[in-house]
Automatic annotation (TrEMBL):
Any Pfam family hit: Aldo_ket_red
Protein family membership: Belongs to the aldo/keto reductase family.
Gene Ontology terms for molecular function: oxidoreductase activity, acting on the CH-OH group of donors, NAD or NADP as acceptor
PANTHER family given in the database record: 2,5-DIKETO-D-GLUCONIC ACID REDUCTASE, NADP-DEPENDENT OXIDOREDUCTASE DOMAIN-CONTAINING PROTEIN
Keywords recorded for this protein, A-Z: NADP, Oxidoreductase
Protein name as it appears in the record: Aldo/keto reductase
Provenance organism: human gut metagenome
Positions of the NADP-dependent oxidoreductase domain: 6-96
SUPFAM superfamilies in the record: NAD(P)-linked oxidoreductase
Length: 117
């Protein structure tokens, strides 16, 4: 799950079944920093693009799992509870839909079928 693949059906299914979903790579492996809408909204809320994407995931009801080895970025990524994205802006972010999975490099063989939402 990430801004380009919000997985609304999966979130609804998880909520109905008392499952807390995880969002791996919520920054779209760095692609989020190239999306004009995300840059504009980050400026509007006076936060980083990373914080905006992570907050988007939190407000969708999932646990974001961003990766960083940089202590400053780790702290920044955790500082997402001082603002709330409006419903209108949540819809704008969700409209970035591309429905692509992130994190399946070609060098990793597929040993199973990917099923789901």
């Amino acid at each position: 799950m990430h801004p380009q693949n919000p997985q609304d059906e999966m979130i609804a299914y998880c909520k109905e079944n008392s499952v807390l979903p995880e969002a791996w790579s919520p920054l779209i492996q760095g692609q989020a920093f190239k999306r004009e809408l995300l840059l504009e909204l980050a400026e509007k809320y006076k936060v980083s693009v990373a914080q905006l994407c992570i907050r988007f995931i939190v407000q969708k009801g999932a646990v974001p799992i961003p990766k960083s080895a940089n202590p400053d970025r780790i702290r920044n990524n955790a500082d997402v509870f001082g603002f709330e994205i409006s419903d209108e802006d949540m819809e704008k972010i969700a409209s970035l839909r591309v429905y692509g999975r992130i994190g399946d490099p070609p060098s990793v063989p597929r040993t199973h079928q990917v099923v789901g939402f």
